[in-house]
Amino acid sequence: MAEDSEETGEQGMAKPSRRHVLMMGGAAASTVVTVRPALAQTAGSIMACEIPIPDPGRMGNYIAADGSVVPPGTPGAFPPPGRNLVGEEVRDALQGGGTIRGYGYEESQAYTNYIRRLQSGMSGFTCYASIQMSRG
Amino acid sequence: MIALDGVALIFHRPSGLTHIVAPPAPQILEALGEGDADPAALLDRLKRDYDFDDSEDLEAALEARLTELETSGLVWRA
Fold it and tell me: Which single residue of A20, A114, B12, B53 has CA 20 to 30 Å from A41?
């Protein structure tokens, strides 16, 4: 902050010559701009964003319990959900550890593990990142 | 509060809001940092540290600045 004044304990004396002149501004001049987080404004869209499982390039493959994408029919792996998962249900499953509606516990775990493995550039990553950042 | 060239940035962690404040707002906040004050006492503190343009209606201008800071949630009246 600009503070080039030199006075210390000189109240009542002649003002030092290098004191900073502060313009209080006219009544119309605004000096405060508040930037709201973009995420707060897009909270609705976060809840509505979708995550395809697996991403379109690997459609038809199964999802293993650890979230990895494996060939169809792999023992212990689950068929893909068959629909895109929506942000709100993904958030609830990630934060609450519960199931995704319409799927069993182990399937839900596999799907959420898949989502946790999403990386930048993969379908659904932006949605996942938004969900993570929206956590209170 | 992070001072940049000419302006300062204030990040309010709980709300995630970032306030960009230009003079005299940072100076007013700094003066308020010494303790609660009414506008008259606040102006006295500012006059102690800064010079002002004598042609300005300082009381009215300070009141306008305080209203802005109040609107942004950075200051409040007891």
Answer: A114
